[in-house]
């Protein structure tokens, strides 16, 4: 552990790394080995309130800082993140379990949001409107919303913070972050680098805690916090939405997914296999945009199945830094139990396990990449997000049938389709009830495009020029001359 200069064990409030008021700590463990990494400060309600008050004071001053100056500090933060990419990746893999190559990719992906919004800070434009009277001048300006609460998940412990904090800071807001208790170390390392970049105290606060309910309640019910941005389950998102109602907060909710991939007869088969594979097995299947259901048209069903099985055979399970490892463990034992439940249900209803299907001989929370053939819409895997390396292949005949099955869910985050028919591309893309559609591509996330869903997959968008608007209030000025 001595080799890590960015590994912090205390929470970060008002520019200082602090212990909990009662000196309570919690254990952070490596999911690949189940060994303890370190103990981290376990904060509660009082410390969360302190963070909010610090953010309120800092935000008022930050809002007056010229956009170019805010941009320069964010740019410095970006450069420090990239200079420390390897250490950040090692810390991320240690607490989250993903292979080191994926962690390096996440650090670069997370940094891209800091870079993007550093540039966008200088592009917060208003409008001059046509006047309604000869002695009136009508204007629209945009101002920071204020203090922002960001509640982030364990599956992307770096990028899910930068995707929220960078636009908030660029807009002139202050941020109180509650990272997942499984992965607080990446959040604290980011705070240390923001501190080194010259970000004024109080603008970025990291509340590490195992009491998500209590901390979440303080954040959502505080009248000082004007915006809550959350990535996580739909169930928790609904609770936060309800708790935020008493102060009518602005919300950005990136919630559950149940992503379909539709492979048509006329698809480039090799490209479809690569695209679905990339979407399905990234981070051991633990992303909200992972393909959860794979619909393959009758004419190429057997061909796709054979090629996909060959591709899956190349996966190597193991700990993050083992040579050639491409997939790590699941995050918890409950995740293992969920995928087992989904497999058992599918087999009972007629599916066949073609490979995998059980916990890995490596032990712990490692689970074998699993391929199911003859899956159907009646199975749990078609209606619940698995969040694991389970690939169910469902057969379909007609385009209309595939669209109907793909839309048969309360979720609407990401979807994918593979076809070389341009008319079908437009037709199916417009018919899919999802905020994101990947067309002949399985990896669709970047800082340039808006990320978010429809239906019960959430509210608002992250990334892109639209992501900055989430942290701004519009003000209309009517001037009589």
TrEMBL record:
Residues 22-476 form the Aldehyde dehydrogenase domain. One of its GO terms (cellular component) is cytosol. One of its GO terms (molecular function) is succinate-semialdehyde dehydrogenase (NAD+) activity. InterPro entries: Ald_DH/histidinol_DH (IPR016161), Ald_DH_C (IPR016163), Ald_DH_CS_CYS (IPR016160), Ald_DH_CS_GLU (IPR029510), Ald_DH_N (IPR016162), Aldehyde_DH_dom (IPR015590), Aldehyde_DH_Superfamily (IPR050740), Succ_semiAld_DH (IPR010102). It comes from the Bacteria. It holds the Pfam family Aldedh. PROSITE patterns: ALDEHYDE_DEHYDR_CYS, ALDEHYDE_DEHYDR_GLU. GO terms for biological process: gamma-aminobutyric acid catabolic process. The active site is at residue 254. Keywords: Oxidoreductase. This is NAD-dependent succinate-semialdehyde dehydrogenase. The lineage of its organism: Bacteria, Pseudomonadati, Pseudomonadota, Gammaproteobacteria, Pasteurellales.
């Amino acid at each position: 552990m001595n080799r890590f200069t960015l590994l912090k064990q205390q929470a970060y409030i008002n520019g200082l790394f602090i212990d909990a008021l009662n000196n309570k700590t919690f254990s952070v463990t490596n999911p690949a080995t189940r060994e303890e990494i370190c103990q981290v400060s376990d904060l509660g309600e009082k410390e969360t309130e302190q963070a909010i008050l610090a953010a309120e004071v800092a935000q008022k001053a930050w809002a007056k800082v010229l956009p170019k100056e805010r941009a320069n500090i964010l740019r410095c933060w970006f450069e420090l993140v990239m200079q420390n990419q390897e250490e950040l990746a090692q810390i991320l893999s240690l607490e989250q379990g993903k292979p080191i190559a994926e962690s390096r990719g996440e650090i670069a992906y997370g940094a891209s949001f800091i870079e993007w919004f550093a540039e966008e800070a200088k592009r917060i434009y208003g409008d001059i409107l046509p006047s309604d009277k000869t002695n009136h001048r009508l204007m629209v300006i945009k101002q920071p919303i204020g203090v922002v609460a960001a509640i982030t998940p364990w599956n992307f412990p770096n990028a899910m913070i930068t995707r929220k904090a960078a636009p908030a800071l660029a807009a002139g807001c202050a941020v109180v972050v509650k990272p997942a208790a499984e992965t607080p170390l990446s959040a604290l390392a980011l705070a240390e680098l923001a501190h080194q970049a010259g970000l004024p105290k109080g603008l970025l606060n990291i509340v590490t805690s195992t009491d998500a309910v209590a901390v979440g309640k303080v954040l959502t019910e505080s009248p000082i916090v004007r915006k809550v941005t959350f990535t996580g389950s739909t169930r928790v998102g609904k609770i936060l939405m309800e708790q935020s109602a008493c102060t009518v907060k602005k919300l950005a909710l990136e919630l559950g997914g149940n992503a379909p991939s539709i492979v048509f007869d006329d698809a480039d088969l090799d490209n479809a296999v690569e695209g679905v594979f990339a979407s399905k097995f990234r981070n051991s299947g633990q992303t909200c945009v992972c393909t959860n259901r794979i619909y393959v048209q009758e004419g190429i069903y057997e061909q796709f199945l054979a090629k996909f099985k060959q591709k899956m055979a190349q996966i190597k399970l193991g700990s993050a830094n083992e040579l050639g490892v491409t997939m790590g463990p699941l995050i918890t034992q409950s995740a293992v139990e969920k995928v087992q439940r989904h497999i058992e249900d599918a087999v009972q209803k007629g599916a066949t396990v073609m490979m995998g299907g059980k916990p890995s001989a490596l032990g712990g929370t490692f689970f074998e990449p699993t391929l199911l053939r003859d899956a159907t819409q009646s199975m749990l895997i078609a209606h619940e997000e698995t969040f694991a390396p389970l690939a169910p292949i469902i057969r379909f005949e007609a385009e209309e049938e595939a669209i109907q099955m793909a839309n048969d869910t309360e979720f609407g985050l990401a979807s994918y389709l593979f076809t070389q028919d341009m008319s079908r591309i437009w037709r199916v893309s417009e018919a899919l009830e999802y905020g994101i559609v990947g067309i002949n591509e399985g990896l669709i996330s970047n800082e340039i495009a808006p990320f978010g869903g429809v239906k019960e997959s959430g509210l608002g968008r992250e990334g892109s020029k639209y992501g900055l608007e989430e942290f701004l209030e519009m003000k209309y000025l009517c001037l009589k001359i």
